[in-house]
Structure formats: C-alpha cells, structure tokens
Amino acid sequence: MKPFLLILIFFFSGLSSFAQFNQKLVEEKLKLPQKTSIDETILQIGQTFLGLPYEGGTLEGPEEKLICKLDAFDCYTFVENVLAISLAKHSEKPTFENYMKILQNLRYRNSKIDGYGSRIHYFTDWAKTAEKNNILKDLSPILGMKMDKTINFMSQHRNLYPSFATDDKVLFDIVLMEKNLAKKALYHIKKEDFNTYEPAIKNGDIVAFTSTVAGLDVNHEGFAIRKNGKLYLMHASIEKKKVIISEETLQQYLMRIKKHAGVIVLRVN
C-alpha cells in the first residue's frame, strides 16, 4: 500500500477513535446516579472534568462544524458542554445524540450551522438565545443594573480572528450580529455591589464576568458552587491551565481581576 494512503487511513481512523471516545465519555456521564435537580447535576457533571487541561481555540478550524471535544476546555466550552450533558441527562432522551442536538442548539443561531457567522460568539448573545429558548433565566435584570456599553470587539479587532481577518463577507455577518445584539438590553451586578447580591446566587448558576475592555462583553465564565457557606467558582482556569474549583472565593476572584467589571448570573430552568 502506498505511504500516502496509509497516512489517510491512520488520520481518519484517529478521527473515528476520538469521536468514539467522546461518545463513550458522554454516555458514561449520562449513566451517573440521577440527581433530583438540574443544579445538582451541573455540579455532578462539572466535577467529573476537574483536572482536565485548559485549551483555547478548540472550536476554530478550516470549516465550521459541530465540534465535540471533551478532553480539554476553555471557559466557554466547559460551561457549554457541562450544560448540554446536564440537560440531556434530565431530558426524556438521555442519549449522546440528544446531547449533540442540545450542544448545537446552544452554540448556533436557530440551531443551523452555516459558516462562521452562524455560531454565537458573544457570551451575552449566547445567554440571550438560551433564555429565548427557555433554557436559562437571566437574573441580572432583577439583581443588577443596565450595562451602558457597545459590544463590537470582534469587528474592531478582526486581525485576531483568522476566520474573517481578510474575509469581508464573514466580517459583514459579525457586524450584523453585533448590531442585533445592540438592540438587546444587557444587565450585570457591578463589582462594588456584588457583596449585597451574593446570597442570591445558588449552586449551579452560571456566572459570567463582565469586562472593562472596550467592546468586549464578558472576560470569563464558570459555575457557582457553595462550600461551607461560601461561594466559589468551578471553571476552566487560564491561570491554572486546567478545570478547577477555585481556592479563593468567587468574590475574591472578582475583586482581584482588574478587567472584571461585574457579573451576569444565569440560572438553568
């Protein structure tokens, strides 16, 4: 057999093995003892990933497709995958196929994969879409105050995004996405007010840290977890290079990072 054909066979068999690994992993988690509430399940599933490495850019590639990668995460993909597995576990069809369907619903606008622009890139847009689909409830308008900020970081820094650094058609899609997001009111709990509203945050709530960076909505996100009455963060940490439950409290983390302006709090329905 020709060497080139051997390389192709090895490449595709590797992809198949990776897909099988992901499916087996999800199915194992779906078979874990059933919890009574979705917030308990989120913490249960999230903790099974503790110690796995942090890796950015895992959704980027030469073509836009639904990527399932469960051996490494950034903060966004950790939250998204834990949520998708948890929702599948509490659904009428706790299957890998349903997990993949939920993942696509969360990640793509109208659940349709049609190029880079069809993926929901801004976390606030992701949250609004999930709330519209009755998956999440944004508590920030109740607890916090309106954000007076234009979200346009991607279009203003296209050089950071290979998918549209030189592609004006994709840039147009990104600008349109930003204009549509500008029509939606965004709220957060300001850093200086966090102590007042911290008791309202429950186990399994998604906590996103709003940004002081011009044009950017959110810096980071994870799940709230209470231990001994104190609130901590379960997240894929770029500082620790792995999935962790923070040693410092959530409030200490919020206050320590200067580019964090406040938090958005989302509760799973």
TrEMBL record:
InterPro entries assigned to the protein according to its UniProt record, in alphabetical order: AmiA-like, Papain-like_cys_pep_sf
Pfam families per record: AmiA-like (PF07313)
Span of the signal peptide: none
Name this protein carries in UniProt: DUF1460 domain-containing protein
Species: Lacihabitans soyangensis
